[in-house]
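Service request form, structural biology core

Requester: graduate student, group of Dr. S.
Request type: structure prediction, single chain
Budget code: on file
Notes: please return the result as structure tokens.

Sequence provided:
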Amino acid sequence: MTAVLTQTRPAPPSTARIALSRVGLELRLFFRERQQVVFSLAYPVVMLVIFASILGSDERPGDTPFAQYFLAGIAATGIMLTSFQALGTSIANEREKGQLERLQLLGTPPVAYFAGKAGQVLVTAGVQLALLLPVARYGFDVPMPADLGHWLTFLWVAALGAVAGTVLGIAASALPGSATSVTTAISALAIILQFFSGVFFGFLELPGWMQQVAAVFPLKWLTQGMRSAFLPDQAGAFEIAGGWEHGRTVAVLAAWVIIGTVICMRTFRWRRGEG
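Core staff response, request fulfilled:
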């Protein structure tokens, strides 16, 4: 009798395994783009050096040195730029060049693609902050978080803000128009939010209508959360609500994570004009 040999195909990789591979690939692709790397990592440092050198003798509410106040804002801005702005523009470009269509043909699950982007953002944001904090500490004598509790606040605010920026960046990449028009729209919104959210000025110094608009968006809460990590506890008395509002910060950032995720799942497309 002749034996019948059956050849079994190997099982396809799981979504988790694909996601992990995407994280490594996204990091390699990111660090190959020298211009993007320099801008993402150097922007917060350069802005801190410029503003702290010019306004270093100024103080913010509660006799807080300007450099200490500004560090919280520029750290939050760096996270937003690395997540929301960088992802929104890069994904729009990938879609326009047909790179996303090739991923679809290879059977890449959207969730794995999103996870790859999120992993890349968390790593690059960590590198960005690791460069920024020593410059602030040793270049401008800015105190670091006072104890373990403040460091933990810094970590959860940074992580939650980065995740919120990631899903919102993916969602924003689906805006109609060419990659150039999407980049312009995202960059304009990012600039406006920096001014509205108390990055360059004390939040109490802003007009009331600006404060109300800023409170809708995550950057204001990311910036306030960073201030709660870097500023003395008593400085919370000079916030709008008279305290740091950690509970509301978590609620708003988490809400934007959920909203952004829902928008991503409904609007993400592999090809231009799809859906």
